[in-house]
Amino acid sequence: MKICAATGNAGKLRELRRILEAQGHEVVSQKELGITIEPDETGTTFAENALIKAETICKVSGLPTIADDSGLCVDALGGAPGVYSARYCGHHGDDEANNDKLLDAMKEVPEGKRGAKFVSAVCFILPDGRHLTCMGECPGSIAFERLNGDYGFGYDPLFIPADCGVGKRDKRPNTEHRSYAQLTPDEKDAISHRGNALAVLEKQLPEGTVLSVVLRETPTADSGLTPELLTACFDRVYVMPEADASALPTSYDAATRVVAMTAYAPDSGSYLVTQ
Regarding beta strands 163-166 and 159-161, do their DSSP bridges make them parallel or antiparallel, or are they unpaired? Predict the structure, then answer.
């Protein structure tokens, strides 16, 4: 399935693309589609903000869209910075300033009291508005100083996960106390909050899921049901007798993933589209 990733965060995009492509999907970023909108994250929960982002970008892209809202929740700080993780320092996206503020807030907190978890809400939405939000967490603790590595972004140098990945799926205790930033991509993806949320989503939308649409009316640019939109969003298009299919391919084409049929509708996993 071709999916638009609703994020302007380069690090988050890398992880979404890496994990989703491993699940068999094609990922295109909003930037690659020329979408520069930055939705206002007015929600009070990760799930609310993920839906806001996914819904906004989906309306513009016309593609199935995925958005992630995530953050770091620190026990000693009552769950802060939480949904305000990206702007903890007072402005958005300054990783160094956010890390500095967190270290300062935690400077008097002793070993054993520095528990924390990363939380991710991943929202997948279809152009018709149907959506699914999956949650993922990764428990760990906050380091006393930056533990920089070759990978990671955001709070990764300060977060020590309880486990680290082994291969693509397994995990083991993080006995070396390495930070997120010091884990390889595979070691992180297998245990990360985002990886866990996407694993739940994968079970809901398993590899090989076929999205079908039954077209009862002729697709036109005015209606928004363009051939380009249909082929981008669906694996199969079934054209009923009352619709003119001349704008669509007349036989199955692997490149466009469209098959035009005359009077057959699939039993399940499909829905009707009319102008």
Answer: unpaired
168 and 272 housed in the same domain: no
Catalytic residue among 69, 156, 189, 235: 69
Measured between alpha carbons, how far is 53 from 134 in angstroms, rounded to an integer? 14
Expressed as residue numbers, the domain containing 110 is 2-204
pLDDT digits (tens, 9 = 90+) for 55-106: 999 999 988 899 999 999 999 999 999 999 999 999 988 999 999 999 999 9
Beta bridge mates, 120: 70, 136
Q: What is the CATH number of the domain that holds 172?
A: 3.90.950.10
Coil, helix or strand at residue 116? strand
Non-local (6+) Cβ contacts of 53 within 8 A are 6, 7, 39, 41, 67, 69, 123
Active site residue 222: no
